[in-house]
Amino acid sequence: MKYLSVTTVLNPFIDFSMVRPDVLTAASDRGTKVHHICLKVYAAGIPALSIPEDCKPYVESFKQWFDEWVDVVAGIEAEFIDKTFGIVGHIDLICRLIDGRIVIVDLKTPAVESPTWKAQLAAYRYLVNLYYEKNRLTYRISAANGCMSLRLKRNGRPAAATPYQYSNDDFAAFMSALNAYRYFKS
Asked: Distance of CA 4 to CAs 1, 9, 28, 61, 145, Å?
């Protein structure tokens, strides 16, 4: 069975029509590199040999937040699948913060929050908690501030962490997007 990624389901609801294609491609490429350096290198404890100039401020923004807030890394770019709904999510970071909260962190490089982020993180929370329920683990992502978007700053300043309280409306919005995607794209 081919699983639909959470981000694929939500992509039709993101409008980039006002962004020139070359700018959008460059931003996407930079975002991919930034994710790799922040997660697969820095969060994993591997020294970065070189960082592209256009990525340095975003990586610095991540490092400041990570060093101040993260106590333990529990997962980096972990994949979670739900066979019932046929969805898959690739979670950027699951960690325990210094205040003891276990959170899902989704790295973002846009300057402005997208309305789809709440639905995306609600779906991620569902997937992570489903995994832990199936495996009879006591670890759960809290409904209160258990997910956050982490907007990395292009000027290297500290990242903006936006916590999301789980909302049935946010998950319902994701499920509606999933149903619409299947109806119109199948």
From this structure: 10, 7, 20, 31, 26
pLDDT tens digit sequence for 129-182: 999 877 776 667 888 878 999 999 999 999 999 999 888 899 999 999 999 999
C-alpha 171/C-alpha 47 separation (Å) is 37
Count how many residues are written for the chain. Answer: 186
* Strand pairing report for 102-108 and 87-97: antiparallel
Of residues 167, 154, 50, the one with CA closest to residue 108: 154
- What does the block give as tokens for 52? 């592209």
- Domains, the chain, with CATH or none: 4-185 (3.40.1350.10)
Q: Which pairs count as long-range contacts for 39-45, CB under 8 Å and 24+ apart, including other chains?
A: 39/76, 39/77, 39/92, 39/93, 39/107, 40/76, 40/77, 42/66, 43/70, 43/73, 43/76, 43/93, 44/73, 44/76
